[in-house]
Each structure stands twice: as structure tokens, then as C-alpha cells.
Design a protein that fits this description.
two-stranded antiparallel ribbon, 7 helices
């Protein structure tokens, strides 16, 4: 059975998946209901998903760049997983693929600042550079320390060939960077839309809190769903695909 056939069977028959989707639908219905209680801005033209093109042009251009590049790396990952070519990857291959997908984001502020309308500014003042630094710090801390929640509490671990740092595959540090560039842009867009559409107040603050919780739940679900198509990991006593089983710290 091919990957697409397996996914189709999974979507049609998995009860846990249906239950989670039901929870998500319920959350969305609650959010829509709460939004009806908010007071809209008098000027509807103020409502927007992205930063203002005149007052915050560099931030808007950075958001557009992150979104566009997100479509590219997602397509690459989809092709790699669907074709199962990753089963043949070595330590070097994983390092090069994930590192190569991260590099354009890191190099753009230095070599192509005009892409995000940052030309003429010192490097440290370029919005795309500051965004990359923040996301890099956030992702490094998350991978180095908090990935062990994934390992220890959930009983899950990656089993593909890789060089590690603190027990975490180095390619995961790279992948987290371009993942977070995309995720943070989407979350910023959602919050920006709320703040430019509705008047400030306690009701909007409560709505934003609920929105963040819903987005967090959906993100966690999507990460779990997408990793289900990646065979190089194990959960508790469940073995991953035999071609992927390789643990650096296992005794021979």
C-alpha cells in the first residue's frame, strides 16, 4: 500500500483523528461565536492580515517573504516524505537537506535585504535580521531543552541517522528555524487581523487568549499528524520503520 493510500485509509478510519477534528471544529465554532460579541472598528479599511504597507513596510515584506518561502520548503518536505526518499538518507544527507532549507532565511538579510525592503539599513536594524535572530534563539532553546518533553513525557524519539546535540538531532535545529518562521508569521497575521478589526478592551483580550489556545492546539495536532507520515521515529514500545532504526547511544 502506497503512502497516499495509507493516508486515505487513516483519514477515513481512525477514530482518534475524527475525535480531534471534532474538537477543533467545536473550538472554531466557539471562536466565531465569541467574535460576534466584539465591537468592530469604525473604519473597516483598517482591518488587515499583514503589517501596514506604509508605516511598517519592512515587517510586511518580511511576512510575505516568510510565507512565500514557507510554500517552498513545505513542498520540498511533502515530496521527500511522499516519495520516502528519506529512508535512504544518511547523517550528511539530513544535515545538508535541512541546513540547505534553512540557509536562504539566514542569508537573505545579509545578501538580499531589498527583498524585505531593508536595503540601506545597518544589519542589526533590518527587520528580517531581527526576526531571524529571535526565531533562532527561540528554536535553539526549545530544541536543546524542551524537546526532552517530547522524548521523556510522550515516550517518543527520532531514530534517523544524525549527529546530535544534547540528544537532539542537529537537523531538527535547522528544521525548527524555517518551521517557526512560517508558524510565527501565521500567528502574527491572525493576531494582527483581530487587533485591526476589533476595538481594544477586555473582551478582545479574552478573545485573543482563546485564539492563541486554539492555534496552539491546532499546531500541536498538525505536527503530530504530519510526523505520522515520517517513519523514522518511535513511540514507547512501537518500533519505527526498520530501515530507520539507528540509535547513537544504543549498545551494539
Amino acid at each position: 500500500m502506497g503512502v497516499l493510500s495509507e493516508l486515505k485509509h487513516f483519514f477515513l478510519t481512525d477514530k482518534a483523528l475524527h475525535d480531534i477534528l471534532g474538537v477543533i471544529v467545536g473550538m472554531v465554532v466557539v471562536l466565531v461565536s465569541l467574535s460576534a460579541l466584539l465591537t468592530r472598528q469604525r473604519d473597516p479599511s483598517l482591518s488587515r492580515w499583514l503589517a501596514h504597507p506604509k508605516t511598517n513596510a519592512a515587517k510586511r515584506a518580511t511576512e510575505v517573504w516568510f510565507l512565500g518561502y514557507g510554500c517552498f520548503w513545505i513542498s520540498c518536505f511533502a515530496a521527500i516524505i511522499a516519495s520516502q526518499v528519506y529512508l535512504q538518507f544518511t547523517e550528511v544527507t539530513f544535515f545538508v537537506v535541512c541546513g540547505g532549507l534553512m540557509l536562504p532565511l539566514l542569508l537573505q538579510p545579509v545578501f538580499a535585504p531589498s527583498l524585505t525592503l531593508d536595503q540601506g539599513k545597518p544589519l542589526r536594524e533590518r527587520h528580517s535580521f531581527k526576526a531571524n535572530v529571535w526565531i533562532a534563539v527561540f528554536s535553539i532553546i526549545g530544541n536543546y531543552w524542551y524537546t526532552h518533553y517530547f522524548y521523556n513525557v510522550l515516550g517518543a524519539s527520532y531514530t534517523f541517522r544524525s549527529w546530535d546535540v544534547n540528544g537532539v538531532p542537529i537537523p531538527m535545529f535547522f528544521a525548527t528555524h524555517f518551521y517557526f518562521c512560517f508558524y510565527h508569521t501565521l500567528s502574527n497575521m491572525a493576531l494582527h487581523k483581530v487587533r485591526t478589526t476589533y476595538c481594544a478592551g477586555s473582551q478582545r483580550l479574552f478573545f485573543e487568549t482563546c485564539l492563541v489556545l486554539v492555534m496552539s492546539y491546532i499546531t500541536a495536532f498538525m505536527e503530530a499528524l504530519t510526523i505520522s507520515g515520517f517513519q523514522c521515529y518511535s513511540v514507547l514500545t512501537l518500533s519505527s520503520h526498520p530501515e530507520c532504526v539507528w540509535r547513537r547511544n544504543e549498545e551494539a
